[in-house]
Specification:
This is Rab-GAP TBC domain-containing protein. InterPro entries: Rab-GAP-TBC_dom (IPR000195), Rab-GAP_TBC_sf (IPR035969). By secondary structure, this protein is mainly alpha-helical. It is built from 21 helices and no strands. It has a domain at 87-245: putative rabgap domain of human tbc1 domain family member 14 like domains (Helicase, Ruva Protein, domain 3), CATH 1.10.8.
């Protein structure tokens, strides 16, 4: 891991020169002896490919993952592969998934031929009734011109209409995604993100596409060169997060997590909770964005990736691959299997999940992210109590953390709050 004291991650995730002053400064730097390096990663495999996941988790929890191997490590953290499998078994799984993605993409391509062309659309191709829009070739927007390549047939199938209506919104969001990165100066890279999100929206028609999914998917596109691998990595991330994006006329997807956050603050800091209620912040809606896209907007791109991988390492459950594989649905939320847990198996859990297992808590609405928000509120405790006279003040004070949070400190504080909450909740 050369140049570990310098800004080495910047060479992997280069910022466009004109955007240098607009992005938060990254705090994360790979550190020898703490960060999981490529050498340490390769040494963690046995001769036939079994991974020492316990050792890998310890290293990630101490110092994150070196940029050169983030993608392949994330595939394990998100349950794409079983650490107990061999190299050959994983190659078979990878090949099967690539073929499956190609088939799904071909299915979408038949309906909208521009998919897979290296281009994408930002203008609607059908109206709400499924009728094709007027020939967009007269538009001045170059992305709109390529809408001509879409199918011109009228559509009656509700699933197809819903999906086709989402494609231009995906395109508009793709254009806005991580604009400061040199990577997305390339239309081909933008189109790759659009293709993956479009195929996912077709597969998960129950929720479809929702703004914010682009922020979750973008790092996978950057980290994994093969589009199919990036798709499955994103799909596995969405197994954990998809309920965040479900909403109806009466509720929002993260409502249950906001309720959990309220309960946590009420338990560990009743004075702050009471004050937030008094200033009309008791529903904790100001934390909506943080939970929705896992702090992507509160950290620099590099620090956001570091935060995610440490969180996923802390939440890691060794049964995750089996539970996903046993699910019949491509979009299953993946509830954990619960075999007898030996001390040896317990070491293969991340430290956050291990504490849940030891205390018998399996609440799916209490992920580490909720405790991370609680840790942010605790760091702003004095300001909130002193300065917040209304909800607007709460939003401003919490919003001041953007680009200033230290991910490592925030996660350590989150673990302390988790422990405190579990102890108080037992009483």
């Amino acid at each position: 891991m050369k140049n570990s004291a310098s800004g080495e991650p910047d060479s992997y995730f280069a910022i466009r020169p004109e955007c240098q002053g607009d992005v938060p400064k990254a705090r994360f730097k790979p550190k020898i002896g703490k960060t999981l390096s490529a050498r340490r990663w390769h040494a963690a495999f046995s001769q036939d490919g079994h991974l020492d996941i316990a050792g890998v988790l310890r290293r990630i929890q101490r110092g994150g993952v070196h940029p050169s191997i983030k993608g392949v490590v994330w595939e394990f953290l998100l349950g794409c592969f079983d650490p107990n499998s061999t190299f050959n078994e994983r190659n078979e799984v990878r090949q099967r998934r690539r073929e499956q993605y190609d088939a799904l993409k071909a299915e979408c391509q038949k309906m909208v031929p521009i998919i897979g062309s290296g281009k994408f659309i930002t203008a609607a191709i059908i109206n709400d009734d499924g009728q094709p829009m007027q020939d967009p070739s007269t538009s001045s927007d170059p992305h709109d011109n390529i809408g001509v390549m879409s199918s011109n047939d009228a559509v009656s199938d509700k699933k197809v209409i819903q999906w086709k209506l989402s494609l231009h919104q995906i395109g508009l969001d793709v254009v806005r995604t991580d604009r400061a990165l040199v990577f997305y100066e390339s239309e081909i890279n933008q189109a790759k993100l659009w293709d993956i999100l479009s195929v996912y929206a077709w597969v998960d028609n129950d929720i479809g596409y929702v703004q914010g999914m682009n922020d979750i998917c973008s790092p996978m596109v950057i980290l994994l060169e093969n589009e199919a691998d990036a798709f499955w990595c994103f799909q596995h991330a969405m197994r954990r997060l998809r309920e965040n994006f479900r909403s109806s006329s009466s509720s929002i997807g993260v409502q249950t997590q906001l309720s959990t956050l309220s309960e946590i603050i009420k338990t560990v800091d009743p004075k702050l909770h009471q004050h937030l209620e008094e200033v009309d912040g008791g529903e904790y809606l100001f934390a909506f964005r943080m939970l929705m896209v896992l702090f992507r907007r509160e950290f620099s791109f590099i620090d956001g990736l570091y935060l995610w991988e440490v969180m996923w390492a802390m939440e890691y459950n060794p049964n995750i691959f089996a539970s996903y594989e046993e699910s019949d649905s491509n979009v299953a939320t993946g509830k954990n299997v619960a075999p007898k847990i030996s001390n040896k198996l317990l070491k293969q859990y991340g430290k956050f999940e291990r504490k849940n297992v030891e205390t018998g808590r399996t609440d799916q609405n209490s992920p580490l992210a909720v405790f991370l928000v609680a840790s942010v509120l605790e760091t702003k405790n004095k300001r909130l109590l002193k300065e917040a006279k209304g909800l607007d003040d709460v939003v401003k004070i919490v919003g001041d953390i953007t680009g200033k949070l230290d991910a490592r400190k925030a996660l350590n504080e989150a673990l302390k709050i988790h422990k405190k909450y579990l102890n108080k909740a037992k009483k």
